[in-house]
Design brief:
With 253 residues, this protein is α/β, with parallel strands linked by helices. The chain has 2 domains: 170 residues, P-loop containing nucleotide triphosphate hydrolases (Rossmann fold), CATH 3.40.50.300; 71 residues, no CATH class. Helix 2 crosses helix 3 and helix 2 runs parallel beside helix 4. The two termini are 22 Å apart.
């Protein structure tokens, strides 16, 4: 992000999450503090077990923090909202009994009911085209590959027009070729829509390719180790010296 960007659009302040196991308190997240600017792309990077997904679910409103709070524009967020949509890694997030177009229309009907049905269908078709799936509107999820399902999930989320898009390792189950294709697609769509995106990953290269800032987390308990600004010019290439230098820095962390 450029100079002068105010990073208090979305803020987490002193967030803790814990659970009890055999009467012993286990801290999952400890004193999480960070803010994201409007239209910023933030990666949350860390190993398995550091609480990345739990953190995203707290921001989405699916879980409550045991201490601390999440704020948007200075107001505390409570519960889930269609303004914050989450895309998961699992391919089963689409309704299997609905066609692709009906899956997208479901989100539109819930979030934007004032729009007339013909316009809603036009919006659904537009976002299918944006993710390169214009010809699969009448297909059912079982007829799609994993990568296609994730593109439909992205189209459905974008059609609902959320303010904040939360993505939990959405490409983690794909092969490297499909993952690279969807990474490029996501950056293209983000640059067009300027949504605020929080993207969870354990893949260092993916974080560098996608994000403006990278929040590095560690385990036992889950906490923020460092926050790094990623100032590499786009489009980013793995072969660039600056990319390699940032990769090495993140690897050390």
């Amino acid at each position: 992000m450029g100079n002068g960007i105010i990073r208090n659009y979305l803020s987490l302040k002193n967030v803790y999450k814990y659970y009890y196991q055999n009467a012993e308190k286990k801290i999952v997240l400890e004193d999480i503090n960070f803010s994201a600017a409007k239209a910023e792309f933030v990666a949350i990077l860390g190993p398995s077990g550091c609480g990345k997904t739990t953190l995203l679910k707290i921001i989405a409103g699916f879980l409550e923090a045991d201490r601390g709070a999440v704020y948007k524009d200075g107001k505390e967020l409570r519960g889930s909202s269609p303004e914050r949509i989450m895309i998961f890694q699992e391919f089963r997030q689409l309704f299997p009994w609905k066609t692709v177009i009906s899956n997208i229309l479901f989100a539109l009907n819930a979030k934007r009911p004032a729009i007339n049905p013909a316009d809603r269908r036009e919006i659904a078709r537009y976002y299918l085209k944006e993710v390169g799936l214009s010809d699969v509107g009448e297909y059912y999820p079982h007829q799609l590959s994993g990568g296609m399902k994730q593109r439909v999930a992205l189209a459905r989320a974008l059609a609902a027009d959320p303010e904040i898009l939360l993505m939990d390792e959405p490409f983690g189950s794909l092969d490297s070729q499909r993952r690279a294709k969807l990474q490029r697609l996501l950056v293209d769509i983000w640059q067009k829509t300027r949504k605020t995106i929080l993207f969870v990953t354990h893949d260092i290269e993916e974080a560098i390719l996608l994000a403006d800032r990278i929040i590095v987390m560690d385990t036992d308990p889950g906490h923020i180790k460092e926050i790094i600004n990623n100032q590499l010019k786009r489009p980013r290439k793995r072969t660039d010296l600056e990319f390699t230098a940032l990769y090495k820095r993140l690897s050390r962390l």
